[in-house]
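Rotation project, supervised by the postdoc (A.L.). Task for the rotation student: set up a whole-complex structure prediction and record inputs and outputs verbatim in this book. Inputs entered:
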Amino acid sequence: MTAALFNVEWSDYAPALRDGLIKTLEFTAAGFVGAVLLGLLLALMRLSPLRALRWPAAIYTELFKNVPLLAIIFLTYFGLVSVSVRLSVFQAGTLSLVIFYASYLSEIFRSAIAGVHGGQREAAEALGLGRRVTFAHVVFPQALRQALPGTNTMLVDLLKSTSLLVTISAAELMSQGQLIASETFRALEVYAVIAVLYFVVCYPLSQGLLWFERQVRGGVPLLPRRRRRMRGVRAMLEQEAIA
Amino acid sequence: MTTPDLAVRVEGLCKSFDGTRQVLQDVHLNVPRGKIVSIIGQSGGGKTTLMRCVNLLERPDRGVIEIDGEPIFAGDRVVCKSLPKLRQRVGMVFQRFNLFPHLAAVENVMLAQIHGAHIGETEAIERAVQLLRRVGLAHRATAYPEEMSGGEQQRVAIARALALKPTVLLFDEPTSSLDPESTGEVLRVMRELADDGMTMILVTHELPFAQEVSDWVVFIDGGRIVEEGPPADLFQRPREERTRAYVGNYAAHFDGGLEEAERVMGLK
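Outputs recorded:
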């Protein structure tokens, strides 16, 4: 039975798996960065006092939250061709991920930004801080802490969803697996290995993100400038204590 | 028509919410430099709104507001050139502290120095530590708000409000959400500020404290100033019936009247 399970010459396929894994990570990185940027823009639009900004963002979010990712992938890759927009596999795949995950992330960001207590903006206002400084130094850092858990879940989810790109042969991990399976006729073994590979990437990623969340919640300064500043303050106080 | 020896001058101030509910009606208020004016009265009487108009966190409907002799509001509109500049001259301390929870105490005091007044990093740190020392919290400089007691948070908030060397400090019920011990700490810091000649407007329910530190007390009810005067007069010889009822009620909470109240709060 064991012998029957492990018949594939994996050493022959290692480069293909490596390339697939890299491609998966590329899709994940590009898709996530794009989705975060678009999601943040949508969230800010939905919090705008202007209806002309709020409505389009709300419609976008509701629309793409309720359409399957696979449908969006087919639309961008096969559908857009008929209006003479021909995207490469990488472009179409990334665009689909961005479109889909931006709608979820915008919800997470919106509630995180709205969840920052009104007294915080008021305190900043009373200190004479402008709107931009208030957002950058008071609202955003607090919203970031609120949004981190949901955003991290979405990142891991996005990585796993890149496997749907097998449907447009995107050369990512799942596509490589499909090729290997079709050459070796060892579906169980091949897909088990592929599943394990996804796990091996996703598990440390989500654990790492959880660790990061705890750090941030514990108040660890993220920016080197803040770390330097706190060291400076401590040094100053120690020096005074000695003197 | 300006009066340069007044830190704050308010004249004929009117304010309504939703255009109907009148919260301030023709209110006048003069705060000379170096003096402390307390505003007392029932909740919902308009005292907090009056104070929030001074730094234009609330926008009045009509009236005149001057800071340091410079008009910031006149007629029915804001006339000061820069709201941020105005607010750098008017520090504010909130009932619920409103410290920035993601920043350490020292950073709370530094933020407006660096991003508002564009003071250099080293100078901002030195000034922040010095202010924290003034409120007795230099040793807590690197602590985060959630690691501090309410009294400590409010003292950091006072240091933060002082960071830009304001002309006048506004206190909005600064001890209302504190236990008695923390209240004592915060009042001690405020008394020291008073001794240093800081100009302050204080909205408070702590009548014994108001009586002790204020140069002038304003009793406001239903959006109007009912009675004002030196604390000795207003607390011991109130002329108006409504003032008598309010001041009397408060003292009656304590068996021994004001004396007992002061002792309980650790003021005497």
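Student's summary: The radius of gyration of chain B is 18 Å.
Supervisor addendum: DSSP finds ten helices and eleven strands in chain B.
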